[in-house]
Amino acid sequence: MSEALRIEYHKTRDFGKKINATIEFIKQNFKPLFKAMLYIAGPPVILGSILMAQILDNFMNILTYSTQGIDPELDELMGLISPAIGAAIFLVIGGTALIAVVYDYMILYEKQGKDIAVREVWELTKRSFWRVLGTMMLYVLVLMLAYVVMLIPTFLLAAISPALTFIGIIIFYAGAVYVVVSFSIIFIVMAYEKVNFGTAVTRCFQLIKSKWWSTFGLFIVTSLIQSVISSIFFLPWYIIFILKMLHSTDANTFDEPGVVTQLAGTICLLFYLVISYLLYCVPLVALAFQYFNLVELKESKGLMAKIETFGTASTGEDEEEHY
């Protein structure tokens, strides 16, 4: 079987070709990419998922008790706070590392195309982690400020007439979706162009202008793909949860499920959370191809590079050629 050609980044692609490029990239790099994600982003994601699985399992037990007329104790509810804080911290670290790994891997892929070791990705991720984390924090802050600003017309319309509140809510959610989609390529912009946050924000709006709907569609479709695949791993936990709900002796008492059942439920939920997190690479890669598509459409960087090298004798191997 002939070796797959390296995927060219700077190339205009329609919607279908961006999806195909995303699938082809993940297919070509499945083993080294997921290995890098698992080794680098995996530990905090697994720790956060363990805590999240504990929280959800305890919450479902409380919910099950309540259906049997048993009120949960305050200590049980307060006991969810510490794991929730720990889960949030670990999952933020894991999410930051995941974004850094995916885009650092894509940068290495453009340079060497294959045989990318975890060590090489780690060397880049060590330097880019804090930039991605800072970007994520500023990103959340900007979104919060944007939401506050967008709440103003909602309150004004509600003050004028309760009937106009619905219009205000539509304006609020429409504005929120617009901002989120416009910011969706900010991480690949910062990773690839090595610019600061302010410049990256301006760059995002500049590139997505007049191409917002295509970016929105790509984000929705790839997120849906990620959710559908993840949901397959969610079914075993859901089945176990239903069995636990049915595990009662009468209307007033509840038999605690066996240790094996609880352990199986926790493992299934943990597996689902970890797989779900790692599969976020699908929309991340798709948004990267959208970024390169927009750059090529508006600036023709790939075309200009080909023109500059036109007529130059090739000194590389065939495997280094782009298509």
Notes on the structure:
The chain is mainly alpha-helical and 323 residues long. Helices cover 78% and strands 0% of the residues. The protein has twelve helices and no strands. The chain has helices at 15-28, 30-67, 74-78, 81-112, 118-160, 165-182, 186-193, 197-208, 212-245, 259-278, 281-299, 301-308.
Descriptive key words:
mainly alpha; globular; 323 residues
How would you sum up the major sheet?
none
Query: What sort of overall outline do the alpha carbons produce when their principal axes are compared?
Result: globular
Q: End-to-end distance, in Å? A: 18 Å
- The average pLDDT score comes to 81
Mind telling me the C-alpha Rg? 24 Å
> What class do helices, strands and sheet pairing give?
mainly alpha
Helix content: over 70%
The number of domains is: 1
Instruction: Note the run of SSEs as H and E.
Output: HHHHHHHHHHHH
Beta fraction: under 5%
> Which stretches are poorly predicted, pLDDT < 50 over at least 5 residues?
313-323
Chart the SSEs and their pairings.
Elements: H1 15-28, H2 30-67, H3 74-78, H4 81-112, H5 118-160, H6 165-182, H7 186-193, H8 197-208, H9 212-245, H10 259-278, H11 281-299, H12 301-308
Write a compact overview of the structure shown:
By secondary structure, the protein is mainly alpha-helical.
